[in-house]
Amino acid sequence: MASYGFVVSTTGLTIARKGLTCGRPQSRAVRKAPIRMSSSGDSEVLEGPFKGNFGDWYLTKGDVIGVRDYRFALLGAAVSAAIAVGITLGVEKPPLPVVDALYLVANGFLGLSLWKIHIYMKPMHNLLKALWGAGTAGAIAALFLTGEGLALGTYDQTLWMLATGWTFVAMTGLFFKEGICFNRQEAWGLMVLTPILTGGHFLNLLPAQVERGGLGVFAAMFLFFAYRKFEQPATDDLGDKSVFDHLEQQKAA
């Protein structure tokens, strides 16, 4: 039977299962004078100690850089996707090579965010990266093999979504992680809207006007989601570093 543990702090509730916790900041231990591991570099301690499930941990410059990279990658994906959607919806004859290029740029930023995201469950993290990789390979194949480019070819020849759609499965997983960890309404909305739009088009269930409207809502919500990430403290996306250390120790044992 699976065992669960609960850690309650002024910053939120952490649910741990088999030593795996969600990415919420842990309750802070009594503040001590910060320990400077070095005068510069990624190991420089910026804040702490924080009380984790498996001991105290410190926020370092390298941690902040990693979280920054994750958030800017999300923002890059959101901006690129929004521009592509704006061109598609706002231009009578959109320049398809530009739309294809923007899709690939957004896809690249999404991949970076999946590499930088902090997920304690390593198999789940690896699965999301593998799904993104499969979708990226499918997108490159569609770009050259559909005869219509990536965006139009996938839209017209929906079977190609079986190759490209894995990217959106990975994206849905990212939104699910953000929703369950931080209960952000825009994350939940994106988690629901993404499979509705992709699955609805694949199964030919959505009228064209509904698809266009949904695409606009998705772009706006994705931008809002990425923007709001910058309002969170770095410790939110970092989570409990002591869990990572514990898992590494278990792996080495």
Automatic annotation (TrEMBL):
Keywords: Membrane, Transmembrane, Transmembrane helix. The chain crosses the membrane at residues 72-91, 97-115, 127-146, 158-176, 188-207, 213-230. It holds the Pfam family DUF2301. PANTHER family: F3H9.20 PROTEIN. This is Uncharacterized protein. It comes from Rhodosorus marinus.
